[in-house]
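[[Local backbone shapes]]
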Amino acid sequence: MVMQRYIYAISLLFILVACARREAKEHTDALPEIYPDYVGVTVPENICPMNFSIPESEHIRAIVENDRGEALDVSGSDHVELPVNRWHDLLQGTQEVKVTVSAWNQEHPDGMTYKPFTINIAKEKIDPWITYRLLPPGYEGWNHMGIYQRNIECFDVEPIIVNAQNNDGCVNCHSFANYSPRDFTFHARGDNGGTIVMRDGKMRKVDIKAMSKGRHGSYNIWHPSKRYIAFSSNSTHQSFYGQSKDKIEVYDLWSDLIVYDIDNEKVLQDERFTDSLNLEIFPSFSPDGKWLYFSTAHPVNMPMETDKLHYSIVRVPFDTETGKLGALDTVYSAYERGGTALMPRISPDGRYMLFSLGECGAFNLYHTESDLKMMDLETGEMVETDIINSPRMESFHVWSSNGRWVMYVTKRFDGRYTRVMLAYWDGKRFHKPFLLPQKDPDQNIQLLMAYNVVEFITGPVIVSNDEMAEMFK
């Protein structure tokens, strides 16, 4: 009996090996239609394996070769999974890999081998960890969400906080100081909520509202010195369209700009940016800490006059010693250039401003026409960004710490669920973006949650579930 099982196991192994090395009998000069589309993309050498599928295939074989002649030969039924360690060895020190794909399906039962395609390997690495918020689309509910961290050198995902830890309240608007996992903040709404601030690995809850005459901390950004955090304080609402290309409008009835001084535990306010004459939202410090950028607009009757709401991007000098703000300088004028300009993000070298541009409103995440745009701050000229955009929404964008990678979210795939994209910036132009790889590529189709507020970090946030839950008792 034992011998029969041994012979059966050996026979099965030979069958599996034979299947893994099936040779297709047909060939074509057409490129394979793989999902996600990784044909011709540029990736960092430390990215996780670029697993992919081919719709309606029964068997797939992929041979991945680098310019040193080393190769991976991997097969699967509906998708291929490339081994993590061998994938990284293959990418190390090479400029590109060639991928040859064969697929078997009802139309090609004897297999079809497609034209090989290349994946370009950039010499600059990417930050190994990212964070993001996962939640249902905003109009569905707020009782199941969390902030997660993912090692993008592999597929490890860990929660930083899920809202079961804060009495099912909303957790949102997280950011990090200098890409450090030991210095971050996020805001939690609901019972025993507040603003959580971790600096140098020590975490505490701060009552911004009590310090600032009723203003709470929403969208935030750290100053490079780690002494200050700039917040916008928003009264946010949502309405639904009866007839529109967009399903929902999210808007502020009022929004102000405040700065939290961590060392002195107080909120600094400038009456120019806390009155009712203007709306302020989405602050962002320059990498040298000398400028505070944000979006601002004149209020209109919301939501009835959304089409009249146009945000410009401005900046003010920031005094690191006192936290005081200087004279206003307009960087992008919506009245001169059109649209609504939101979420300014300055490249680590201080040269470029990446931002989201839509037709109107305060939240381009809900506007189909929203695209990513970039301005050269030295010349004031716009930089070409068409390759990273799509006919559907792009927003929530960030730079990697070395300024060579951009991460953002998009609704390009189905118009509803945001997914994470990565793109290489070589200092002169953007390259074709690619969807964040998953161990099972169909996870991006099957996951009924949306990504937003994406950030790069250099390592994982270390915090225990008990320590996090204690913040909200």
Summary: Residues 1-20 have pLDDT under 50 and may be disordered. Helices lie at 2-20, 84-91, 208-211, 334-337, 443-446, 465-470. The first helix runs from residue 2 to 20. Residues 25-122 form a domain with the Immunoglobulin-like fold (CATH 2.60.40).
